[in-house]
Amino acid sequence: MRGTPAAVRTSRRLLTGYFLGLGVVMAVWGARMPAVQQTARLSTAHLALVLLAAALGMVTGLQTAGRLARPDRLPALLTTGSVALAGCLVLLGQCRTLPSLLVAAVAFGIAHGVADVAANSAAVRCQNAYGRPIMSGLHAAYSIGALGGAALAAATAHTPHRTLFLTTGLILAGLALAARPATRSLSGTDQIPALSGTQPVLSAGKLWLLGALAAASLLGEGAAADWAAVHLHSLGASTAASACAFALCSAAMAAGRLAGDRLTQAFSAPTIVRAGALLAAAGLATGVLAATVPLALAGWAALGLGLSTAVPSLITAAGVGGPRAVATVAVTGYLGLLAGPALIGALASITTLSTALLLPAVLAAAVAAFSHRALEHPTSPSSPRILADPTHLPSPNLQEPRATPR
Length: 406
Fold this sequence. Notes:
Helix content: over 70%
Order of helices and strands: HHHHHHHHHHHHHHHH
Structural class: mainly alpha
Shape: globular
Radius of gyration: 20 Å
Low-confidence stretches: 194-199, 379-406
């Protein structure tokens, strides 16, 4: 830390704020989902349709941001995506019918995709400037924000959700606009640290494996955000207790990510990710099958703790392939984040919610099985199957454009 330039440390703090705000928005939306469902009189199938609309919007946002996320454009993408996401939360709170919710959900998804890709792209560049792992800590900020948002939703359980959405959205939009001057000065580098004196590259197969595992991990996070409260409510829990399910999951994930950088340095990323994924699979499966409120709460907490280091480790592993590799893994992963919960809703409509919630547990077990292969050292430059872009040159700050977009 002592040798890190002040501008890079400032950028890290600023990015921590952006990740924190993203977590708050997603938690407030997810924790008050039962109120949204009740106000609009949505069936489980209709709620799944709303989530699918958000997923489709996010695909559009991810693809758009992936094409535009050049270093000189990241500040604008961060500010625009964050303000739009906060505004869409306000809009969702005013919806009373299925059609209006579908439109608002699409816009919400687009804004979320843009903000997330911009934040993660800037985070990879900032981590490269630091020269040591900080990604898990930045993602911890997202989890802490989610914890705060879920706690806020629980504390305001008797307040109309439209009031909560309005207040939260206006505050976060104002903060993003106030931070705009500092965002323009974000620092980072695209230089990837070399292994054994050589510049590592990724094989195409490993790139897609990283993306698939990111999708499996983020499906679990999405399930917690969108279905944990609904699951607890179906077991007879109160509104406040239902909102606490996601709060516990977020608290456990934040704790794991706060320690994630140190644990990764001590035991290696493959070991930590595998052990955590096994815990997530066993914990959630036990909580769902037991069908009691205390064990269900414990199961969601185990899911959060177990998956805490997976996504930061996967994005870091993709970073050796340059910004395009990071974008590919992020896009694939975020498909799991929003499309996964919609899939759970569809499965629940033809089976039961408890049966559908076993899907994240099964996918967590898959992450444990394949994490070592995905997170082992990248291939050497002599490998015949590589993914690299020779035009990705180091740049000292985010204002300097690059010839080739991500």
